[in-house]
């Protein structure tokens, strides 16, 4: 792209003719998660709930990145990955629990200046890429934790970090990608301590 920007993005000026019908092919707008996180938002969650129901958000009838808007589709994907043994249900469930519990905590704290504190836990699941990330990205078999106990710790860490970044960071309303990257960094350490704990427990048992 840096070498041939014109050829790749179009170097011709297209002019509409009066004889041809003119219409808008599409439009861009802030995502619902971005609307709530907007510092200028004075309505809190009503900035979203005034025009979007939770059911519509769950089904994906809202603007957003491709693949992440429909939590229902992500749920179907989770069922397939678990049934085929490709994705770990422990990671999916622990990410979900970590996000819900931390979101509930922030929701109870509340804030007069940050509308993200007022977002209910169930809305965190259907807005943004949390559902997509916990199903298809956090479960990556190469970078995720491998031990069973480690997967619970790994998933809880990602879930809590996701909500933490969403709520605390004013300039970045989404947090799942950063949380997964940080979880991947700590995954080997988590597995190491789980294995070491098992070894130490067996050594104590054999010594007794």
Structural write-up:
- By secondary structure, the chain is mainly α.
- The chain has one domain (16-207).
- It contains ten helices and no strands.
- Helix 6 (89-109) packs parallel to helix 9 (148-168) and helix 9 (148-168) packs antiparallel against helix 10.
- The longest helix has 32 residues, at 176-207.
- The radius of gyration is 22 Å and the shape is globular.
- The mean pLDDT is 84.
Level of helix content? 55-70%
Strand content: under 5%
Tally of DSSP β-strands: 0
Sheet bearing the most strands, described? none
Distance between the termini: 67 Å
Q: How many domain regions? A: 1
H/I helix tally? 10
Identify low-pLDDT runs.
none
Helix/strand class: mainly alpha
| Spatial shape | globular
What is the residue-mean pLDDT, rounded to a whole number?
84
Order of helices and strands: HHHHHHHHHH
Calculate Rg over CA atoms.
22 Å
Structure keywords:
single chain, 208 residues, mainly alpha, 59% helix
Short structural summary:
This protein has helices at residues 5-9, 32-37, 46-49, 54-59, 71-83, 89-109, 121-126, 130-137, 148-168, 176-207.
List the helices and strands and how they pair.
Elements: H1 5-9, H2 32-37, H3 46-49, H4 54-59, H5 71-83, H6 89-109, H7 121-126, H8 130-137, H9 148-168, H10 176-207
């Amino acid at each position: 792209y840096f070498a041939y920007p014109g050829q790749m993005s179009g170097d011709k000026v297209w002019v509409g003719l009066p004889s041809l019908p003119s219409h808008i092919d599409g439009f861009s707008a802030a995502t619902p998660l971005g609307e709530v996180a907007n510092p200028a938002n004075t309505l809190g969650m009503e900035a979203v709930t005034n025009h979007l129901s939770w059911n519509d958000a769950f089904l994906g009838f809202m603007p957003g990145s491709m693949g992440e808007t429909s939590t229902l589709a992500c749920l179907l994907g989770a069922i397939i990955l678990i049934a085929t043994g490709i994705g770990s249900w422990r990671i999916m469930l622990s990410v979900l629990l970590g996000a819900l519990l931390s979101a509930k905590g922030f929701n109870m704290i509340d804030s007069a200046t940050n509308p993200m504190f007022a977002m209910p836990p169930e809305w965190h699941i259907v807005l943004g890429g949390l559902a997509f990330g916990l199903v298809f990205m956090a479960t990556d078999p190469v970078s995720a934790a491998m031990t069973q106990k480690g997967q619970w710790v790994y998933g809880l860490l990602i879930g809590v970090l996701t909500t933490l970044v969403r709520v605390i960071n004013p300039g970045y309303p989404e947090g799942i990608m950063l949380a997964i990257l940080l979880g991947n960094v700590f995954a080997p350490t988590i597995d190491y301590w789980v294995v070491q704990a098992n070894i130490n427990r067996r050594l104590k048992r054999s010594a007794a």
